[in-house]
Every structure is written in structure tokens, then in C-alpha cells.
Amino acid sequence: RGLGSSASRPREDSWLKSLFVRKVDPRKDAHSNLLAKRETSSLYKLQIHNVKPECLDAYNKLCQEVLPKIHEEKHYPCALVGTWNTWYGEQDQAVHLWRYEGGYPALNEVMSKLRQNKEFTEFRKERGNMLLSRKNQLLLEFSFWNEPVPREGPNIYELRSYQLRPGTMIEWGNYWARAIRFRQDNNEAVGGFFSQIGQLYMVHHLWAYKDLQTREDIRNAAWHKPGWDELVYYTVPLIQEMESRIMIPLKISPLQ
């Protein structure tokens, strides 16, 4: 009995350790190189502004006057992908998504030129008086997601943001490279991004729907497709926190 008990104990200890010790395959490259699109070098900036409630209309008017000038000016290597107000989620909030074609050098070029732009300097000063808080992130685009391109409306947009557990970005990418095919039948997939600077291990999925009921119908339909439930089962443990914003595009937004 003694020999049998002592022989089984190491196996039991090993099994218990396996429940708590995560095995990670060694990586020989940064996850940004493994997951981002190689054929492009675009960098994205996500801006989230919490606006004073009494200033939201004035803030929107100001942005609609100034932001298109930056977007349309050819010597700025950037483009406004979309601009919205949050409808459901945190209230009195503005969300802007920019693309910098050429990566960090393009970002530096735009920021340098804007510092010399008196109109933009005045815009930032006036805008600052309307804000309670603001934050931004620099993002890369997942290789397996659609390129976010302008679309006609009317649409509502959902920005689903996931705070992943550190060290799980590769796993997330591997699962979603398969999962995305379940969510493209209705052209609802707009873009998928992961953070490089700002809050790290953040993933953002951007979706477009005709209305809230259409959103519900499309999401429910995914559960009837073989394989979707399994992918959800494996990705949920990778998440620490998640947030959903339903957003309405401003008139100047290329994503309508």
C-alpha cells in the first residue's frame, strides 16, 4: 500500500500543477509581427473623449468643421476612418479612429505639421475647454480582419473592447482567425485592432449594423453555425474585462 500511495502522489501533484501553471510555447518574434498585416504599414489611433454634457453639440460642430480639413489635406499622411458619439455605453462621449499610412514616421510627420497649424492649435485649445477627460491608443490591424473602408449608411456601430490576460494575444489571434468567418455573411465586420501603445493587451472589434434588432438577429444566428460555440468557449477565458459601445456616426464620418 505504501509503495502504491507514494507512486501515485507525484502523478497527482503533476496533475494539480497543470491546472494552475500555464504552458506557453516559446515565441521568436513579437506578436505585432505575427498578427499584423504585412502588406501594409498602417498605424491606427483611437481617441476617446469624454465631453461635458452641456458642450456635446458644440464639440460635434467644432469637430465637423476642423477634422475634414486634416482628412482631406493631401500633405497630411493620415485619414479619418470614422468618428462617432456613443449612444449606449458611457454617455456624452466622442470616439475618433485615424489611420496613418506609413506607420510611426507618418504619425510623427502629421503631429509635427499640426503643431505649426494655427487653426488646429486654436481648435485643440477650444476643444480642451469642452472635455472632462481624454485618452488614446495606438493600434495595429489584425491580418485576418477586413480593411476598414468607407461605407454608406445609415448604420449603427458597435465597438467591442477586450482587455486580454497578458501573454494571450497570440492565442486570441489564432482563434479569431477562424472565428471571423462566422461573422461576415452580412458584411457587419468593419475592422479588428490590437493595442501597441496606451492600455496594452487591448483588442477592439468594430461592427456595423442596420439597427439594434439586426445586431441581435445576426449575433444569435452565429450560434447556429457549427464551430462558433467552441471558439467562444476557448476565447472567453483569455478575457479580463470587456466593454461594448453602440455608436452613431457624425455627418463627416466616412463610416456612415
TrEMBL record:
Highest taxon in the source lineage: Eukaryota
Compartments where found: Mitochondrion matrix
Keyword Nucleotide-binding: no
Domain NIPSNAP intervals: 157-254
GO biological process: mitophagy
Keywords: Autophagy, Mitochondrion, Transit peptide
InterPro entries: Dimeric_a/b-barrel, NIPSNAP, NipSnap_domain
Protein family: Belongs to the NipSnap family.
Name the UniProt record assigns to this protein: NIPS2 protein
Species in which this protein is naturally found: Centropus unirufus
Gene name in the database record: Nipsnap2
